[in-house]
Amino acid sequence: MKTNSRHFQLRSLFLSGGLLLLSACGWVDAGSGIAPNDPEPSGGQIVAQAELTPLAGVTISGSVTIYDMSGGTYIIRISGLVAPAENGLVIIPIVNGSGVTSLALRTNTGTQNYTVQSSQSSPRWEQVKIHSSPNNRDYAAALFDLG
Fold first, then answer.
1. pTM here?
2. C-alpha angle 114/31/80, rounded to 5°?
3. Is there a contact between 107 and 29 (Cβ–Cβ < 8 Å)?
4. How far is 62 from 15, CA to CA, in rounded Å?
């Protein structure tokens, strides 16, 4: 392992509405420009998926898939992300009508998994936003079909 690698430590946040989010843990070589490629979850059921739609004239692409891993565990998977290279980008999941928290985006490219624990029996995933904290605006949203 190179000495310039950074480890993003596991973090947890207790949220109103009974959700506990745990950010994914991974190694990223900060000097190589290599995007993360988290493995696809195995054994889970896809409960929502959508392409990211750019907002406010920002160039951004990728897709978001929500996996139900059973027992109240969900994985938010952002695939093929290409976002502006800026500090302060966060993921905001909108569940049951509310933005429940914000999680720091690990990097602006690649495929990244974020694990979510829910005490709610059937959380309704409405969208996942990519938000710029420094600019206080949404850069993209994956809008899930609630039909």
1. 0.77
2. 40
3. no
4. 26
